[in-house]
Each structure stands twice: as C-alpha cells, then as structure tokens.
Design brief:
Radius of gyration: 20 Å
Strand content: under 5%
Distance between the termini: 28 Å
Strand order of the largest sheet: 1-2
Largest sheet: 2 strands, antiparallel
Number of strands: 4
Helix content: 55-70%
Order of helices and strands: HHEEHHHEEHHHHHHHH
Oligomer: single chain
Structural class: mainly alpha
Number of domains: 1
Shape: globular
Length: 344
C-alpha cells in the first residue's frame, strides 16, 4: 500500500509540475529557443516563432521524480535471482544520466542562434549511445526475453553491445524525425513505453519495481506536454524532447529486457521517420545514384500532408490509431498464447 501511495503521489506530481512549468515557461527568454522553421517540412511555417526545446522542462521533471522514487525509497526487487538488484539500480542511474546528456545536447541546439551541423549532432548521438550501451552490458547482463512467448536467450556480449548501440541510435533519430506533426511524437512515445511495460510484465522479464515507477512518471509528464502540443500547438518539444525520448524508449526496452520489442513499439517511428533517415543516408552514401522511395515524400507524415492532403489532426489520428492497433494486436496475440498454454 505504501508503494502505491508513493506511485500515486509521483504520478500527480509529474503531471502537475510539468503542467505548471509549461503553462508559465519560467526563464523562457534565457532557456528557450524559438522555432526557425524546417526547410523541407510540409507546413512547418506555422510553427515559426513558437517556443521550442520545452522538452527541457518535462524531461527534467521526469528524470528528477524518477530518481527520487527509484533511489530514495528502495523499491522491492524481484526475487527471481536472475540479476543482482544493486547492479540493476546502478545501471538505471547511469541510464538516466545518459538520457539527461541527450536532452542537454538537444536543448543546446534548440536555443542556438543557428542550427547545429547534423554531423555534430550525429556524432554526439553515437558517443552517448556507445557509453549508454556499455552501462547496459555491464550492469544488466545479456539475457533478453521474447515478449511474445516469454522465452529468453543469452546473447553474446559483443553482439549485445553492437545491437544495443544500433537500437539507441536508430530510436533517437527515428523519434526525432517523427516530431513534425503536432502531438505525434509524444503520443507514439506514450504508447511505446506503456506497451513495453505491459509486454515486459507479461513475459516475466521485469527486473524490479523501478519499471513501474518509470512508466507511472513518464506517462503523465508526456500527457501534460501534449495538452500544449495538440494541434494547434502552442509550443514544441524540440530536439531536447524528441532525441531524449528516443533514447529513453530504447533504454527502457533494454531495462525491461525486451529490446527486440522495438520492432513492434518502434514500428510507427520507423515507418514515419525511419524511412526518411534511410532515404537520406542511402542517397548520400551513393551520391544520389540510389534514391529509395522516389514516389513517397518522407517523413510519411509529410506524404500524408502534402500529397494526400490530410489535415494535421487527421495525420495524427491515422498514425496514432495505426500504432495503437499494432500494439493491441501484439498484446492480444501474446495474451491468447498464454491462455492457450502455448507460451509462458
């Protein structure tokens, strides 16, 4: 009961503090940048001048409340004996620091007079991902669960490290590329984190109660932000929000020991923003000799806006409903397998 009370308090505090900070934007002139517009983004001109980088506020609230609840109240750890609780708690601490670092780099870009060179941002993403993946390998081990069935495998440490680095980099950039439609990136992030927690629980993979804390704090913080970001938006999360959200989603998957679940919860990000990154990368590597998806404007939300003439609200509705259906079908299938005794 005491744990539930602390969770409830954290949930309310996360929503209320984020709501107040975003309502008044304390230190806006010093801390925040203002949107400069995106050169090739469909409809980006409507966002010019809006406060950007407000991810600085809700990410700080999320990290601070998570740290207080996870480290100050000694949550009870699972008695399965697969991992030492101290290692997991220490690894979580380093993971939160990595997410903070990703937020700070994005925030500095948001408030700079000129956008940072994309190669600089990419290099910073790689460095942070390399360090964060090392912490995951060192503190969490290499056992991962197949969330659909609950079966587990122990991955070779070198392969685990490489795959984790790739997961972090892909998630950071795909989430960032998706942040072009009001409310989209935040909504998809809430779905991804909630589904990850649910599937980790069903697979018996969750290492401790910290997973509950992270989920219960993360969701209300994002919901408070979305109140200001639904179309027509009043403010934008910027790189401070989108890049750190991408890292947190990937880190949370690894922490819950279900990293391969990104192929499900991350599919909307990959289909929307990921294909844009792939298209640009292949084009540059081949000096534009190979152009993927020639007939599609990327990211996908720009295709829907520009070529399909969808409104912003309709784009959000279509993509979020599609993501929700994918998650629901996956969860339903996993549940059915357990009821039939095929899994678990």
């Amino acid at each position: 009961m005491d744990f539930i009370i602390k969770l409830a308090a954290g949930c309310v505090a996360g929503f209320a503090i984020t709501l107040i900070l975003l309502k008044f934007l304390p230190g806006e002139k010093i801390l925040m940048g203002h949107d400069r517009g995106r050169k090739f983004a469909q409809g980006a001109e409507v966002n010019i001048g809006k406060p950007t980088g407000v991810g600085f506020y809700f990410i700080l609230v999320f990290l601070a409340l998570s740290a207080v609840l996870c480290f100050c109240f000694n949550p009870v750890v699972s008695d399965k004996g697969v991992f030492e609780s101290g290692n997991y708690v220490t690894g979580l601490g380093f993971g939160l620091i990595a997410i903070l670092a990703e937020m700070v780099t994005g925030w500095l870009d948001d408030r700079s007079a000129k956008p940072w060179n994309e190669y600089i941002k990419g290099a910073l993403d790689v460095v942070i991902s390399l360090i964060a993946a090392f912490f995951c390998l060192h503190f969490f081990g290499t056992r991962v669960y197949i969330s659909l069935t609950g079966a587990f495998i122990d991955i070779n440490p070198v392969l685990f490290y490489i795959l984790t680095v790739i997961l972090f980099i892909v998630s950071i950039n795909a989430t960032n590329a998706t942040d072009g439609i009001d409310g989209l990136s935040g909504s998809l992030s809430v779905l991804a984190v909630f589904t990850t927690f649910l599937m980790g629980f069903m697979a018996g993979a969750l290492p401790d109660r910290n997973t509950i804390i992270l989920t219960v704090i993360f969701v209300p913080c994002l919901l408070a932000y979305l109140l200001f970001n639904f179309n027509p938006s009043k403010m934008l999360m910027g790189d401070a929000g989108s890049r750190s959200l991408g890292l947190f989603i990937a880190f949370f998957l690894v922490y819950c020991r279900v990293p391969f679940l990104y192929l499900i919860v991350g599919l909307p990000f990959l289909c929307d923003g990921g294909i844009s990154i792939l298209k640009i990368t292949v084009g540059r590597l081949t000096k534009k000799k190979i152009i993927l998806f020639k007939s599609i404007t990327t990211p996908l939300h720009d295709e829907l806006r520009k070529n399909r003439k969808f409104s912003v609200k309709r784009v959000w509705l279509v993509l979020v409903l599609a993501a929700g259906m994918i998650d629901f079908i996956y969860v339903f299938t996993a549940t059915l397998l357990r009821v039939l005794g095929v899994a678990g």
